[in-house]
Amino acid sequence: ATFGTLSDRLTETFRNLRTKGKLSAADVDQTVREIRRALLDADVALVVVKEFTAKVRERALGDEVNRALNPAQQVVQIVNEELVGILGGEQRRLQFAKNPPTVIMLAGLQGSGKTTFAGKLAKQLEKDGHTPILVACDLQRPNAVNQLQVVAERAGAAVFAPEPGNGVGDPVRVARDGVEYARRQQHDIVIIDTAGRLGVDAELMKQAADIRKATDPDEVLFVIDAMVGQDAVNTAKAFQEGVDFTGVVLSKLDGDARGGAALSVASVTQRPIIFASTGEGLEDLEPFYPDRMASRILDLGDILTLIEQAQQAFDEEEALAVAEKLANEQFTLEDFLGQLQQMKKMGSMKKMLGMLPGMGQMKQQLEQFDEREIDRTEAIIRSMTPAERRNPKVLNGSRRLRIARGSGMTVTDVNQLVQRFDQAAKMMKTVARGGVPNIPGMGPV
Ligand code: GDP
């Protein structure tokens, strides 16, 4: 699947990090090196990789990570933010003309998916109540006009094309006539499909530039096959210089693209990716969301949501205090009670644990985990005196019986809690270090 290898590599990198507490400069460098290698292997352009890793490194060594409760997760968040950044930041929608028709011109190499995209876009626009017309300006390829007609028919859209047999006409003129025709026929959107070549060439660029001049489009969309590797950047640059474009369409994102094109093109051209084309069917078109794409690349489940929740739930100062106590073996049931309350703030434990990557094998245990366990534990601790909470060793038989009665539990429950307190202290140690907690009542993970 798309980004498979890149995702795997990044996940692996972060998995190594996840077990660490404080990050040393060497940890950060190691991580950045791995990210760099993963991106280069995914065919992301070198300039983009350099800039990206430099930013990640600088931020990862900075204060936001140093002060974070969980430095590793903070690094993941930084990588995510920087990924969203190179993918263009905010989502950018198609822009429509104030006075219709809106003219959308497509440019790109032959086989990049322009004609297919024209059909997909027409179909989507129709669904939104528009009346698009496709204009066939690829008069180079013998079958191109016919192909556009077929696609238009499938999309149920109108077509403006030169008469068959007249294939050697002037594409600039066809484009201009097409826009005129659309205006007369009250089509509110014109999609101009232009000729592509297998490689970039001067004549192709000039023709596209002339069509642009003649029709003054509201959008010029550069369609690029996401499966092309390092070439993506050079092709995109050539089109930017030769025609320039207002946005990018990434096609064939359903294939086994390594992701390089997606990550490079927006960054190098500073033009937003507006659509992702994800299949041969006319329905396979999606608006492009940089943030969603970044999450997909990172493939860390909902780890970022989890981080946010954890950040809200854990008061950092308190966590430091707890860590201190753990180190000095001063962690008491009183502190444990405080921690349980923090955990409850994080919301459903089940849901939270489910969001952690690599928890698949724990599904069954998760199913068995009873959230009321926390409530029961809380009830028992609340029935203890402060002295008992500070030092469970004083809990003799009669005290345990009193606590059981007070909390509505059995003496066995109380005994188990005291036993598990040791385990829980270990778990808190893990949480404080940013690991996966070993929940009391769930047995060892
Ligand atoms: P054009 O030469 O730029 O007009 O490219 P076409 O639209 O003719 O597409 C070239 C080939 O890629 C065709 O076989 C399309 O079916 C295929 N294609 C286009 N878009 C996609 C896509 O998003 N996913 C997949 N899998 N194939 C696509």
Describe it.
The protein has 21 helices and eight strands. It has 445 residues and is α/β, with parallel strands linked by helices. The chain folds into three domains: 4-86, Up-down Bundle (Four Helix Bundle (Hemerythrin (Met), subunit A)); 102-289, 3-Layer(aba) Sandwich (Rossmann fold), CATH 3.40.50.300; 303-432, Orthogonal Bundle (434 Repressor (Amino-terminal Domain)). Strands 3-2-4-1-5-6-7-8 form an eight-stranded mixed sheet, with helices on both faces. Helix 3 (46-60) packs antiparallel against helix 5, helix 6 runs parallel beside helix 7 and helix 14 (316-327) packs across helix 21 (411-432). The two termini are 30 Å apart. The relative contact order is 0.11. Mean pLDDT is 82; it is low at 358-362 and 438-445. Bound molecules: guanosine-5'-diphosphate.
As a percent range, the share of strand residues is 5-15%
Distance between the ends: 30 Å
CATH class of the largest domain: Alpha Beta
Shape annotation: elongated
List the domain count as a whole number: 3
Order of helices and strands: HHHHHEHEHEHEHEHEHEEHHHHHHHHHH
- In CATH, the topology of the largest domain is named Rossmann fold
The largest sheet is: 8 strands, mixed
Family: Belongs to the GTP-binding SRP family. SRP54 subfamily.
InterPro entries: AAA+_ATPase, P-loop_NTPase, Signal_recog_part_SRP54_M_sf, Signal_recog_particl_SRP54_hlx, Signal_recog_particle_SRP54_M, SRP, SRP54, SRP54_GTPase_dom
Protein name: Signal recognition particle protein
Catalytic activity: GTP + H2O = GDP + phosphate + H(+)
